[in-house]
Amino acid sequence: MHACTVMTTSLRNIIARHNPVALIDSSLCNSNCNASVALARVRQIHAHLLVQGLLYDSLLFHRFIASVALLSANDNGISSTSSHHHHLLLLLYSHRLLDHSPHPPNAFVLNSLIRAHSKVPDLENAFRFYRRLLRSLSPDRFTFTFLVSACARGSTSTTAGAAVHAAALRRGFASNPHVHSALIRMYVEFGLPNAARLIYAEVQNPDIVSRTAMLGALAAAGEIDLARELFDCMPSRDPIAWNAMIAGYSQLGRSKEALELFSSMQSEGLRVSEATLVSVLSACAHMGALDQGKWVHAYMKRNMLHVTVMLGTALVEMYSKCGDVERAMDVFWRMQEKNVYTWSSAMSGLVINGAGNECLGLFGLMKDHGVPPNGVTFVSVLRGCSVAGLVEEGRRHFDSMRDQYGIEPWHEHYGCMVDLYGRAGRLDDAVDFINSMPIEPHAGAWGALLNACKIHRSIELGEYAMKKMVEIESTNDGAYVLLSNIYAESRMWGGVNDVRESMKAKGVKKEPGCSVIEVDGEIHEFFVGDKSHPRYREIEVMLQVMSKRLRLAGYTAKTKESGCSNAAINSWAPQLKS
DNA sequence: TTAGGGTTAG
C-alpha cells in the first residue's frame, strides 16, 4: 500500500510541476471517489499547491476553490449520514479557502460556490455569495442559472425565487435559455404551474429544454392532454422529452398511455434510460400489469443494465403491487445498495400482500443496517402491526417516531393507529385515541373508525363516525358506502335507504369502480356496469364459472368493497386468451 | 474554467 502511495504521489508531483490544473482535474473533478476520500485528496493537493508556491497564481487558486466546492455537489453515494457529513466538510473547506485567499474572487469562483450551495440546498449561503458578488462584480447568466435552481430546490417560500426572477429580468438574463428553463422548473416546484406558463410564453422560440420543462409544468397542473399537444408539436424529441411525457402519464395514473408511449419510443429505436424504465415500471405497478413489468425486467437483463437503487426499488414496487411478492423480495435481496426508499417499498409490498409480521421483521433488519426510517416507513410499520394484530407493539412504534427518530406523526399515522385499535376490536381505545390527538382529526381517522365499526358491527358508533367524517369531507363517497354496508349487514334496510337519500340530497355520487388487466400486452379496462368490451358475453360466462368454482371451494363473498385484486384476476387471465 | 429539462416508497 505504501509503495503504491509513494509512486502515485511522485507521479502527481511530476504532472503538477508541469500542469497543476491537470492535477486538480484528474485528482478531484474526474474522479469518482466518495466524499471522504475526496476530502483527503483536497488536503493533499492544498498542501502541495502551498509548498510549490502555486497559490499565488490567482487563476489556479480560483480553480482550486471552485473544484473543492463543486466536489461537494457531486452526489456520489450521498445516501449515508457520514458521506453527507463529508460533503458539508468540503463546502466548509471551500469557504475557508475563499476567506484566506490573497486574491479578490472573480465571478467564476462565486458562481461555482453558488452552484455548490444550490445542490445541498443551502439558500442562505447561496445568497451570501450572491451578495458578495454584487459588491464588486456583476452577476451573469451563470449566476442566475444557479441561483434560480437554488430557489427551486430549497425554497419553502416563493419570495426569494420571485426576487431572483425580478433581478434576472432587470439585468436581461431571464430569456437566456438556461435561466429560462430553470425559471419554469422553479415555478413548477413552487406549485405555480401558471406562472411557468407565463414565462414560457415570453420567449419566441423556446429550445427543447424549455419545452420539456414546460411539458413537466403542464403535467404538474394535470393538463396532460395539453402536454401531449406540446409534445406532438416539438420540432425534435430527445429521450428526456419522451421521459417527461411518459412520466406525466404515469404520475397521473394514465398508465395505459404511458405504456403505449413507451412502445412508440421503442419503435423509434430510441435509447431507453433509467428514468424511462422507472416511470414505465411505476405505470406497470399502478395497473397491475405483471406481464409488461416482467418484460421490462427481462429487457434490463438482456441489455445487462445495472440494477441501480432506483431501478431496483421500482422493480420491488412493481412486483409487489402486481401481487408477486416473492419476485419482489427476490429482487430486494439481490440488490447491492438499498436506501430508505428500497426498504420502505419492500415493507409496504409485504404489508399490502398481508404479510404483517414479515414487514415488521424487515423493519428490524433495516434498523440493523443503520438506515434511518422516515415517515413513509412508519406508515408501513403501523399497517404491519394492524395486519398482524399487534396493538401494543404498534403503540410503541408510534411513540418511538417522535421520541427516537424525531418524526412528527402525520395524519396518516394517526389514521393507522385508529385502524390498529379498531381492527383489534378495541373501539373504545380507538375513540379515546382520536379524542386525545394533538391535531384536528382528519376524515381518514374517522374513516378508519367507521371501517372498524363495520367489521365489528357497531351501528351507533358508526353513525357517529360517519357524522364526523361528513362534517369534514361531505362528498366522501366511501363513507356513505361503508355506513350503508353497516346497515345492510344488520338488515336495517331503512338505514340503507336513508344513506341513499342523503347522498342524493348532497349530490354525492359513488365513483364507478374500475378494474384494469393486461393480457398479452394489451390493456383491458372495465368500469362498474360497463358492457362495452367486445368479448363481454364470453367474460360474463367465465365470471359465472369462476364464481361457481369459488363457491364450491368454500368461498363466500363478503361485502362490495372487498373486491378481487388485480393479481387474482390476472391469474385467471390466460383463460381469456383462447 | 462554471449552466438549464425527465426518474423511486404510504
What key phrases describe this protein's structure?
single chain, 578 residues, mainly alpha, Serine Threonine Protein Phosphatase 5, Tetratricopeptide repeat, two-stranded antiparallel sheet, 32 helices, 2 strands, globular, DNA-binding, E2_motif, repeat, TPR-like_helical_dom_sf, Pentatricopeptide repeat-containing protein, RNA binding
Structure overview:
By secondary structure, this protein is mostly helical. Among the domains are: 68 residues, no CATH class; 102 residues, Serine Threonine Protein Phosphatase 5, Tetratricopeptide repeat (Alpha Horseshoe), CATH 1.25.40; 64 residues, no CATH class. It is 71% helix and 2% strand. It has 32 helices and 2 strands. It has a two-stranded antiparallel ribbon with strand order 1-2. Strand 1 and strand 2 form a beta hairpin. Helix 8 runs parallel beside helix 10 and helix 22 packs parallel to helix 24. The radius of gyration is 29 Å and the shape is globular. It starts with a helix and ends with a helix. The N terminus and C terminus are likely disordered. It binds one DNA strand of 10 nucleotides through helix 4, helix 6, helix 8, helix 10 and helix 12.
